[in-house]
Amino acid sequence: MKQRILSGIKPTGRPHLGNYFGAMRQFVDMAGEFETFVMVANYHALTTVHNKDVLVSDTKDLILDYLALGLRDKGAAIFLQSDIPEHTEMAWVFECLTTVPYLMRAHAFKDAEGKGKEVSAGLFNYPLLMAADILLYQPDKVPVGKDQAQHIEYARDTAEKFNRIFGEAFRVPEAHIQSEGSTVPGLDGKKMSKSYNNTIPLFATDEEIDRAVALIVTDSKKPDEPKSTQGDTLYALHSLVSPHDLPMITKAYEEGGMGYKDLKALLAQNIKTMVAPLRERRAALAEDPHIIEETLAHGRDTVRPIAQETMRKARELIGVVW
Ligand code: AMP
Ligand code: TRP
After folding, report:
1. Burial label, 148 (beta-carbon count in 10 A; 0-12, 13-18, 19+)
2. Whose CA is nearest to atom 6 of ligand 2?
3. pLDDT digits (tens, 9 = 90+) for 76-106
4. Which residues of the chain have pLDDT under 70?
5. Ligand 1 centroid vs 193 CA: distance in angstroms?
6. What is the DSSP pairing of strand 77-80 with strand 4-9?
7. With 0-12 CB in 10 A as exposed, 13-18 as middle and 19+ as buried, what is 305?
8. Beta carbons within 10 angstroms of residue 276's beta carbon
9. Are 228 and 253 contacting, i.e. CB atoms less than 8 angstroms apart?
10. Which atom of ligand 1 is nearest to the CA of 146?
11. Ligand 1, atom 5: nearest CA belongs to which residue?
């Protein structure tokens, strides 16, 4: 029996290299070895996206992105969160077990509050919907970027709490966070994030790649001077995108001999080489008018029975059926 992984990404704008190296690449790499469920977290996106056309188009785009990475070919089930009503049902049960002070410690909530934003009840409860996403499928591992580590802890705590109060219903899953690419820096050196406007989109055009790479912030060291690899955004991106060139690049950093201009040109080139086949594949897939519906139907049929079985057990244990 294969172990199972489950993960999800919100359909909110174009995925970027942070999503790819932090999460998506792991889904692809693990899909052969693990039974793989990959979700489009559209109900999580609803915490920020309040526009039908935007949500529909970002949802379809993310499904094409997943397909272009070859997830279906590797046997993964790709499904839409809102297709499986057990997620929101399970989340309610978890909300009744979880205290407000515990949820107030969530980074996402604290950030939003700190910035003086109005926090919806949905955003506040976000970790519990995510716990439901995960726990319904009894996965062994949840591959995510480092910024999601706390959310996985919430899911684990929730599973343990339910199991303790009502009886064993859930496997307690582990986060799977690769040290390489755990936090990919953006153009300005902060975490690459759609909300910081510092991204390199994964399916960018060559021109977009050139423009983005030109904006990567560096210090003002001359080509001959040694440069620090520590905390250097350009180097961090090279170490993800340019594994074959990395010994040469590391040497150029340590001993001098290559300027930031050339280092950027090489990075842009290597990103293009990586992205071009994905981009072509995506364009070809987008021609098929049925592919999205087919993908979601397959995903739904594969995962729903598992969610239903977990929900059935949970309903019995809490005492709403007997
Ligand atoms: P999101 O776009 O917030 O739904 O994130 C989807 C996945 O990408 C999650 O597993 C995140 O941890 C991961 N991720 C997002 N930004 C980064 C980043 N800058 N570095 C590493 N992983 C990231
Ligand atoms: N919260 C995750 C993010 O912002 C997305 C997500 C929703 C998720 N449900 C999930 C990730 C379940 C893993 C498992 O990146």
Report:
1. buried
2. 8
3. 999 999 999 999 999 999 999 999 999 999 9
4. none
5. 8
6. unpaired
7. exposed
8. 12
9. yes
10. 12
11. 9
